[in-house]
Amino acid sequence: MSRLPAFSRAQLGIVILLGAVLVLLYAWRGNFVGAPSTADAPVVNPIFVEIAGEVSRPGVYCFPAPPTLLELSQKAGGPKPRTDSKILLASGSRVEVTPAGEYRPQGRMSGPRLLSLGLAVDVNDASAEDLEALPGIGPVMARRIVQYRLNHGPFKSLGDLHEVSGLGEKKLARLKAYLTLSPERSGP
Questions:
Q1: Is the model's pTM score more than 0.70?
Q2: Nearest to residue 126, comparing CAs of 69, 167, 185?
Q3: 3-state secondary structure of 17
Q4: Band of the pLDDT at 188, cuts 50, 70, 90?
Q5: In the chain, which ranges are E strands?
Q6: Pairing mode, if any, of strands 59-63 and 47-53?
Q7: Of the candidates 1, 20, 42, 158, which lies 20 to 30 Å from 27 by C-alpha distance?
Q8: What is the DSSP string of 87-116?
Q9: Looking at residues 135-156, what average pLDDT do you find?
């Protein structure tokens, strides 16, 4: 049987010291020492609002709570809104700033943008192009949904989509996670 080599006290001290340094480095890099950082804490239900037009930084902005026009204009570098409105903007809203500095709500963001942010598409407001962004919905089905809505009025529930030709139970079950109805349009 072979015998393991013996280490001197100095060699053992160096190995222990290196081990302690590695443990401290691991703890420091893993942020196990000290209080957890709150600067990088995720927003639980972020509110996304798009702003376009006459602002220095157009785009989509994330807020921890529904913002006012003033809060949105400050983030986007736009002119101060003329109206002293306390109206809160809903997630998925789109606002256009005119050359005259007026803030005009434009409804919802486009379907692809909503879906990329994890937001649902409103089946009563969506265009055929918006609906095409949904998984499994092509141009023909998107036009059928819009045409059905135009002929029969707004959908009162997502279950009403069963009435659209070619939209079966399985496909609708997969789509429900991506769809919503405006509160003011939905029925009892």
A1: no
A2: 185
A3: helix
A4: very low
A5: 47-53, 59-63, 93-97, 103-108, 121-122, 179-180
A6: antiparallel
A7: 42
A8: PPPPTTEEEEE-TT--EEEEEEPPHHHHHH
A9: 93
**Are 62 and 46 in contact, with CB atoms under 8 Å apart?**
yes
Give 18's contacts (C-beta < 8 A, 6+ positions apart): none
CATH architecture of the domain 114-180 equals Orthogonal Bundle (1.10)
Tell me the domain boundaries of the chain: 47-108, 114-180
Distances (CA, A) of 178 to 121, 137, 173: 6, 12, 10
**51 φ, ψ to 5°?**
-130, 140
Spatial separation of the C-alpha atoms in residues 113 and 92, rounded to whole Å = 9
Q: 137: which DSSP letter?
A: -
CA dist 179 and 68 (Å) reads 25
- The single-letter code of the amino acid at 3 is R
The answer to whether 62 and 109 are in contact (CB under 8 A) is no
In Å, what is the CA distance from 142 to each residue of 16, 62, 67, 111? Answer: 68, 29, 32, 12
Tell me the β-bridge partners of 104: 96
Structure confidence at residue 29 as a pLDDT band (50, 70, 90): confident
Q: Could you report the per-residue pLDDT of 49-63, keeping only the tens digit for each?
A: 999 999 999 999 999
In the three-class reduction of DSSP (H, G, I as helix; E, B as strand; rest coil), residue 164 is classed as: coil
Measured distance CA(126)–CA(136) in Å, rounded: 16
